[in-house]
UniProtKB/TrEMBL annotation:
The keyword Membrane belongs to this UniProt entry's keyword annotation: yes
UniProt organism field: Sphingomonas endophytica
Annotated coiled-coil segments of the chain: none
Its membrane topology: Multi-pass membrane protein
Transmembrane segments: 196-213, 240-262, 274-298, 319-341, 353-371, 392-416, 422-440, 482-507, 527-545, 566-589, 595-623
The protein's name: Small-conductance mechanosensitive channel
Family under the similarity heading: Belongs to the MscS (TC 1.A.23) family.
Length: 785
């Protein structure tokens, strides 16, 4: 399995805990000193590669060269900043003149010397970084070549008699080596005259940590989660993570205490140190594998289960997780014993065959169990859809098992063992990644929720809407889960020879922190976080300015509501644009690059975004010229209503049936629009009717004037008007006008006036009906004859 020695893991963990102090101490050292140290490390690694190095030394050299590259990159960046300051001071002095003062000349000479030294150091630092990268690539290539040779090596097939004949021939020598290794260790212990009681104390402490303390810690954590942890999802994920931590740390501490007691008692000779370290690593990894798979399955506590796994599946697969951990322990210890004893290649091949067979049996048993569960479920619910993903994974696993079996029979033991170990590592890594992703999602979504304590504090303190808080929690969850997936992907490829353990991973993270060059721009996690922070600060300032503008300044002006809305919208979009430019500038993207990007997008805007651009420009024209304002009563085509909102893309019009008509701004600019309130807020009603020619026209005009005067909605100024429009076909045609306060009440007022007029004309016996029509049929003369 891809496991590293415990000492290296402990040092890496110690590095993580002491990282702030180490970085603070490094920051106090001058960049030139750090660059000199990095150059010395590069030269030392280069000289070491001239000699023959083993795998462990190669991994240490790789970690050292990557750390040197990180230091050289950081020191070069600091020196480049100092060089930029010196150049700025030289530019501030201006060009050298003939009659320059003595102090200015001396300062210019000093700055010029500093420029030369810093420029030389920056170039040297960049060269060191290139050399370090070349050495790292060389180490990677050598590791990859050795890995390729290992998996491509072929030995006699284990089904042939010659394979086992070689094992039996080498067995006496291997037994003598094992006896000698054991005898040397016992002899060293006897000669050291060690004390028994420290070893006994270490054994008792290890038993106490491994059993009662571990159980008590699990119960204590579960009791705390039940009583104090917020949210069911957070409790569930925290319980799984706590179970993995206790299941891993407790065995590690138990074995470490036991080994410390043996060393204290002088009962652990130097020749057994490698096996002791291997025992610590194997125990820790096996317990981690068992704990992480157990936390994922949660066989005895289904209500605390994170993954959507059925109870029968969890019960069926739990024994296989224990077998996986046991096989991993046995495999690692066999490899350690073979290395410590120095067994023959035949014996090592035999142990490899044993490991492959154990892995194959475990994989086949697990796949058969999963297939049996799927078959039972299909019989119980024949119409239920089966998960295609699980079937595809099972098919791939069967194909890998068959390929491994074929490789075993053909003698490619390295390839077969690698595939089986990779499958086991993938299962453990996938389970750990799933638990961490679920925990990250549960924690982010629960903490950053609108109804949580933090969400309410953010809403009150920053004025954020509840939806914004929820969206931030979802986005944070996505970012953390994506980061975990990338880290898991990198750890998955560790067995391929692309990494050298935790130290290399930390060194790679250090390189990532220095930034990645993309199109001439250095993109780093710190720069991204800084850009996001600047963007949020800029948007907060825009929000505060717009609130001051709308609540304080604009009410003190003589502008109407529509004008205030226009000013507020323009201020909002301009502020957002400035905030985005500020954030991009914090990432190192200057205004000239933004202009270049906009010019590159102009072709796409001209073709694909032409309509959107037209609406945007039309919206700016509407906000600037204000031919249509909020509150206007307009008619667009056959629809008319109130203008409720004007944005840079469209305008919303509230119709009489309480629906909303959304009109693109380009339609309001390029086509005819009737604005009934542009010149003034008044509305007008028009009434037309006809009376017979013998009717009293003066009396009709008086009735209409009295009706207008009696209606409260009709204004006295402008005064209503009654006109005789024409006389035709024996009837007098009247055309009457009156004004109301708003076009919105014109329709109802006109209806009320018509109702009163009909009642008055009926009382006065004035006919306002249509002219009676008479139809005559005239026959032809021939028909009459």
């Amino acid at each position: 399995m891809p496991i590293r020695p415990s000492i290296r893991a402990a040092l890496a963990l110690l590095l993580l805990l002491l990282a702030p102090r180490v970085y603070a101490q490094e920051a106090e050292v001058s960049p030139a000193t750090r660059l000199a140290r990095a150059e010395a490390d590069v030269r030392a690694v280069d000289r070491a590669l001239d000699l023959r190095v083993d795998d462990d030394a190669r991994g240490a050299l790789r970690e050292r060269i990557i750390a040197a590259r990180v230091a050289a990159t950081a020191a070069t960046a600091d020196l480049a900043d100092q060089l930029a300051l010196v150049d700025a001071r030289l530019a501030g002095l201006g060009p050298a003149g003939g009659a320059e003062a003595g102090d200015l000349r001396a300062q210019r000479q000093q700055l010029s010397r500093q420029h030369m030294v810093l420029d030389s150091s920056v170039k040297r630092g960049r060269l060191i970084g290139v050399e370090a990268q070349q050495l790292a690539d060389e180490l990677d290539q050598s590791v990859a070549e050795r890995f390729s040779q290992t998996i491509a090596a072929r030995s006699p097939s284990p089904v042939l008699p010659g394979f086992w004949v070689a094992v039996l021939d080498a067995l006496p020598r291997d037994l003598r080596r094992a006896e000698g290794y054991l005898a040397n260790g016992v002899d060293a212990v006897t000669r050291s005259r060690g004390r028994v009681w420290p070893a006994l104390f270490g054994l008792l402490a290890a038993l106490a940590i491994g059993f009662p303390a571990r159980t008590a810690a699990q119960r204590l954590g579960q009791r705390f989660l039940i009583e104090d942890a917020p949210g069911h999802r957070v409790r569930r994920s925290a319980a799984a993570i706590w179970r993995v931590m206790i299941g891993t740390v407790a065995p590690f501490l138990a074995v470490a205490v036991l080994m410390a007691g043996l060393r204290w008692a002088r009962l652990l000779p130097t020749t057994w140190e490698a096996v002791a370290d291997a025992l610590t690593v194997a125990t820790t990894y096996a317990c981690f594998a068992s704990a992480v798979t157990g936390a994922l399955l949660m066989r005895n506590q289904p209500s605390w289960r994170v993954a959507p796994i059925a109870d029968d599946v969890a019960i069926e697969l739990r024994p296989y997780s224990w077998l996986l951990a046991a096989i991993a322990f046995v495999s690692y210890m066999l490899e350690a014993l073979n290395g410590a004893i120095g067994t023959s290649p035949a014996a090592q091949s035999a142990t490899h065959v044993l490991e492959i067979i154990l892995h194959l049996a475990l994989l086949a048993g697990a796949l058969l169990a999963v297939g049996r569960l799927r078959a039972n479920r299909a019989e119980e619910a024949a119409t239920a859809p089966m998960r295609a993903g699980l079937g595809a994974v099972a098919l791939v696993a069967w194909l890998l098992a068959l390929a491994t079996l074929a490789a075993l029979l053909l003698g490619f033991l390295g390839f077969a063992l690698f595939v089986m170990q990779l499958i086991g590592w993938s299962v453990v890594l996938a389970a750990a990644t799933y638990l961490l992703m679920a925990a990250a999602d549960d924690l982010a979504v629960t903490v950053f929720a609108r109804d949580s304590a933090l969400g309410r504090a953010l809403s009150r303190g920053l004025g954020l809407r509840g939806a914004v808080v929820d969206q931030f929690g979802v986005l944070l969850s996505g970012v953390v889960r994506l980061t975990l997936a990338l880290v898991a992907l990198g750890l998955f490829f560790v067995p391929f020879g692309t990494g050298s353990g935790i130290g290399t991973l930390l060194a790679r993270l250090g390189l990532l922190a220095q930034g990645v060059q993309v199109g001439g721009i250095s993109v780093s996690p710190g720069a991204i976080v800084r850009g996001i922070a600047v963007l949020f600060i800029g948007l907060a300032l825009v929000r505060a300015f717009r609130r001051w503008l709308e609540d304080k300044y604009l009410p003190a002006t003589d502008l109407d509501g529509s004008a205030r809305n226009s000013v507020g919208l323009v201020a909002r979009y301009v502020g957002i644009a400035l905030a985005v430019i500020w954030a991009l500038a914090s990432l190192g993207i200057g205004v000239e690059r933004i202009a270049l990007l906009l010019s590159a997008l102009s072709v796409g805007i001209g073709f694909g975004l032409q309509a959107i651009t037209s609406n945007f420009v039309s919206g700016l024209i509407l906000l600037a010229e204000r031919p249509i304002k909020i509150g206007d009563w307009i008619r667009v085509g056959t629809d008319e209503g109130d203008v409720k909102r004007i944005s840079v893309r469209s305008t919303e019009i509230a119709l009489a049936d309480h629906s909303t008509l959304i009109v693109p701004n380009s339609e309001l600019i390029t086509k005819s629009v009737l604005n009934k309130t542009l010149a003034g807020p008044l509305g007008r009603i028009q009434i037309q009717f006809a009376v017979p020619l013998e009717a009293d026209a003066d009396r009709v005009s008086a009735i209409v004037a009295e009706t207008f005067a009696a209606e409260t909605e009709i204004l006295d100024d402008p005064a209503p008007k009654v006109f005789i429009d024409s006389i035709a076909d024996g009837r007098i045609f009247f055309n009457c006008f009156a004004h109301v306060a708003s076009p919105r009440v014109a329709y109802g007022t006109r209806s009320a006036v018509l109702t009163v007029l009909l009642r008055s004309f009926r009382k006065e016996n004035i006919d306002i009906g249509t002219i009676p029509q008479r139809m005559e049929l005239i026959g032809r003369k021939e028909d009459m004859d």
